[in-house]
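Sequence in, structure out.
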Amino acid sequence: SQVGGQRRTKGVGTLPAATDRGRRSVRVSKMSVSRPRSISMSSAGRSSQKGRRPSFLNDKGEVRLVENGFDLTPLPLLVDEAPPDEVEEVVAEREAETTQHDDEEETGTLWSSSYYSESGSDSDEEEKVVVPPVVTLLTESPTETLLCIRGRCVAVDAKEVKQVEQANVAYEASLDLKKNNPDKYVTRHAQTLNAPLKDRGSVTAPPSSSSAGTQATSYDIQDCIAQAVAEEEAELASRRPGTASKQQRINRNVYQNTSKVVAASKASPDFLLDVSEDRVESKAEKIKPSVREVPIQREIQGPERALLKEKFAKNMRGVSMGFSCAAMERCVQQNLYHERQMNYRAFAEKPSVQQELEAAEEVDEVEVEPTERGSSVEALWSWQAPMTKNRRVTCMAWNKHREDVLAVGYNGVVIDGSLPQDGGLVLFWSLRNPGYPERVASLEAGCSSIAFSAKNPHLLAVGLMDGAVYIYDVRQKTLQPTPVFDSRSLKNAHAEPVWSVAWVDKGEDKGEVLVTASTDGRVLEWTLSKGLEASCLMVLKQLGDAEGVISRTASGLCLDIPGDDPALYLTACEDGTIHKCSDAYAEQYLESYTGHTGPVYKVRSSPYDPKVFLSCSADWTVKLWTQSSSSPSASFRSEGSSPLNDVVNDVCWSPRASTQFALVGGDGRVEIWDVAHSLLDPVVREQPLVEPPPSADEAPPPPGTPMDKPPEPPAPISVAATACLFADNAPVLVVGDASGSVTCYKCVNLPAAPPTKKLQLSALEAALAPDEAQG
């Protein structure tokens, strides 16, 4: 059956389609099963429909929406409740009607689909049905927290104030313990992303300028010189008493008038010369001549004294005076360092006359066979200056043309373990003056890497801790050079420290370019043909599964260019992996080398065989690799009585022997290894010690205090060695440390190397052959 335009199953009561104050009249109609869309009304229905309201109106005359026999009029949400007895009666009547409608449906009777159509019975009473009330329940949902950032400050009246104060007191106590016992504490640094910079440009009008010129002929110059000579002779003649002529008296009057004008100018507020120390000498201070014929310098008046003083100060601050003083200082330093400089060149020292006489008087009755002296290093001198105190040496580079010039990069000043401050420095040291640098370049941030150009030796590339790249021209006639190229204005420059820079010659087409690696994960190539321009060679990615990793970008810590192919380069990352890359492939590595368990700080290719390279890491080891194998050929770490239990900061090949290399560690040690001699122990192990700086907490005893015995000197300590580099023109190794000192060592009695390059290469291959066979 259908009630209110909806079909119902047999035996189920109907629901009303409309309400009138809780009760609405409903007429039940029935549709033909065979023709659902054709609706006919019985004779009884047609007769009862006469004189009644239309089928689309209810008791109140409201319009009802009926389509295809279905009542589509929306129901109200809230209705009045009806007594339960009436509801039960209506339900019982509906069940009876449903049974009757089902019987008539079997005989094929057609029923009207009108909403207000009459049933098959003659009864005119309308049936009333009450709609059950609709109840809407609103409840409060639980609170969901999407982001919670706790503040760093706590209110005074908060409950956790005492806990925070106790935590702060405990933290201050831990800092005091660190000062008293620093060996049990380790300082760790963290890097954060730099905020992106915004460029703001402005347009200003160019300053006004004008051109001025003059022309002088040879006779004009001759006349001026003759006039100057005549004036000088007249000045000398005027100093002799009784020889003043009429012209000289006129000149004296002119000078007096000029002096008055200069004095009036000095009294004006626009006078800029500093004459605060000028004083006019009295007549008693004048020096009287002992002989009349000797000219005496006349008294210098106030205005002239001020002009002379300004000229003198200008000359003393001039560039020529600075270079003259530097040349004079070289002469003095060469007298002091002459013997050590000769030893630097490995020249034999000539014995003195006294030593020769003593040797001639001695008579050796028993011949003693000479014993071979062991390998060692001998400290010649240290390059250090007041400006380098408490600055960490980060990098060093020899000039390719002037092989006695050493460029050293320094980080900021570090005091009591604090962060570097006051920017960085690049100092140019020379063998001619070990006491003071030849040039001093000040940087806005710490220096992280430097490299001299091989094709243009006057160009020096400098990488900074803030991601900037500077290019210096050392030919500048100044003691404080400024960069000729600066990458700070470029948008695609590095955003984090530039740990490695290297010059690469790409041939006649591209010329020499600069390649840099940074912890922002990018390897950039810089060209200088049209100014400083950068292009990205590769973005370093971490190997392995990226699940649980926030960013797959790897931090580059070092870079090296093998000598056989300028298109290839080796780069090492913070995760301990080394990658072989090419300019032709910007998305993938040619080869990856794994073996280190800590960050790799340096990668150095052999100068004799570019396919062999060394790497040093924070895992206390140095590993030897070949490009054909992804695993290391050998691993080096000092054992025995003094094992190496600290980070290896730098490693470098010897230019004189293919199997020798040097390393420096965080404990201050300097070691020289020879692969052909031993793979277990170095041939040279040096542990330099320095006197500790005076403690600021211990005040000196007041004067006059009786002392039973003199105080004992403090025990020497070791300073972390941070960089090392062999010299190309001498058997010398230079080592930089964390205190700002660069020590020059002479290598003594190292194992002899083959005389030719071919034999050097054969010796290196022979040293690697047993290891490769074992692998």
